[in-house]
Amino acid sequence: MLAVHGGYETCLAKLIQADCDIEDKDKEGWTLAMFAAIDGHDICLAQLIAAGCDIEAKSVNGWTAAMYAAIHGHEVCLAQLIDAGCNVNAQNHRGETAAMYAARNGKESCLAQLIDAGCNIEVNNVDGWTAAMMAEERGRMDCVTMINAEIERRALRNALLKGESRRQKASLRV
Question: What is the pLDDT of residue 133?
Answer without folding.
Answer: 98
